[in-house]
User: Fold this.
Amino acid sequence: MTVVAHISDLHVCKLEFDEEVFMNAVSEINHLQPDMIILTGDLTNNGYYKEYQQAAKYLKMFEAPIFVVPGNHDARNLGYQTFEELIGERSWKLTMDGNLTVIGLDSSTPDENRGHIGNPQHMWLDHQLDECVINENFSIVVLHHHVISIPQTGRERNVLSDAGDILKTLTGHEVDLVLSGHKHVPNVWKINNTVVVNAGSLCSTKLRGKNKNSYMVYNISDEHIEIILNIVGGEKFLFGKYARNVL
Assistant:
């Protein structure tokens, strides 16, 4: 079984980052010993260099390998440049054990809240997913902005601007999991054979209604994808269980 922890929207800054909650989450996730941690953007609140420096120190507290894509807040104030210097590439691909592929996309636009993938990155994604289909790999696509609107998040203003084209590519290749953040509200949609998951905020005080800080855990076996919603310092809920596309 492969275990993946999915965190999002840390918003490291002076006012809206809850360090105590973050440290609790680190302890919980390290105890879980996942095979990897995926962070779907907004690790900083304003993209400032000092915020990135602090965020980089925090991320080193996780014991599992961590893979990060930038969010709209990370692309502010030249943050898209700082991300590459202190965190890593803004889009990437990794393959685990020869049969699981994770593709990270940069959906951010400098100093704008809207999300956009764009044609060059879309073409690259399409090529990588073709390889996943040929090799029959379990596929995960990671990006900050949501490709489908999330319930109970108010007026929709910044769903991915080319969401229709991207969603067609994702479902056409029967991607197993699509992971996003951005809205600070946990949610799961299933479209055809693709499961689309939105994570809540791990440790930001910017929470909607009665939502609490949380993260997702995916238990991936040969038969099923099990999605667990973990409230930081609290309960765990089975958020969904889905049969694998290829058995």
